[in-house]
Amino acid sequence: MMARRGEPDGDSLLRKVRLILDAFDTGAPVLGLSELARRTDLAKTSVHRVASEMVEVGLLNRQGRRYELGPLLFELGQRVPRTRDLRLIAARYLEDLAVTTRETVVLGFPGDRNVLFAEKYFSQRGGGVTFTQVEGRVPFHCGASGKALLAFGDPSIRDRVLGSTLRQRTRWTITDPAVLDAELAQIRRQGYAVDRQELVVGYGAVAAPVFSADIAVATLTVVGPIDRVPVARLAPVVTAAARALSRDFAGVNKS
Q: Across the chain, what does the average pLDDT equal?
């Protein structure tokens, strides 16, 4: 029998596991069998079989007839040395930036297909917590963090993104690869990236790269309502913090 479009061969269990894991996001943290099949383009019988095995080993949890990501994934993520070390070192920089800018600050890492936000510090304004609609993972091409990682990060990721379809999130999202490539060149010249409602309407951001061996391995990003993101004031503060974090991280790697 011919496999469905996009479905790996029968012996490609790991690729099926990857497709199922990628189907979940912050907008859809719990998914039923039919939705998993639609998002992965796998047959329902295949999704059910693989998802059942993933539940048994802790990669997924089952809630009735629906599934969510399992605790083992978090545990495994904590074991990645570079990510763990950088998160620990970055904590004080995130807090300092949140206090200084009075906006939300996030630490982003490059994933395989998306930017992953590992830590988030919320600012205090008017006695309350400022809410940001930044998701746990977002596409590289829309948002300050992603553009900073594309400009200064692994060239293979940049080539893959520029060669792919750039999906629109808002009417300000860059969807033309040539326009994005030109902006990445500008980001490399100025040392930071800016988002003006490209990811979430009404919100903007300024991001600077955190380096390891001349490659961006993370970003520090200040996020806030668009009318509270003065680039000229925020960019020097964010880039200075990212440079200091890069130095501290390099010192840990040498020890």
A: 85
What band does 74 get if pLDDT is binned at 50, 70 and 90? Answer: low
- Give the closest residue to 190 by CA, choosing from 165, 169, 175, 207: 207
Query: Left (φ > 0), alpha (ψ -120 to 50) or beta: where does 38 sit?
Result: alpha
Supply 159's token pair: 């080539």
**116, 138, 153, 152: which is closest to 203 by C-alpha?**
138
Model confidence at 129: pLDDT above 50: no
CATH of the domain at 25: 1.10.10.10
The answer to whether residue 126 sits within a structural domain is yes
Residue 236 has pLDDT above 50, yes or no: yes
Dist CA 39 CA 61 (whole Å) = 18
Which tens digit of pLDDT belongs to each residue from 14-50? 889 989 988 887 677 899 999 999 999 999 999 999 9
Whole-prediction pTM value? 0.73
Full residue range of the structural domain in which residue 56 is found = 13-75
* CATH code for position 188: 3.30.450.40
Separation of alpha carbons 91 and 27, rounded Å = 26
Number of domains in the chain: 2
Residue that terminates a domain, selected from 75, 100, 129: 75
Domain stops at, among 75, 91, 121: 75
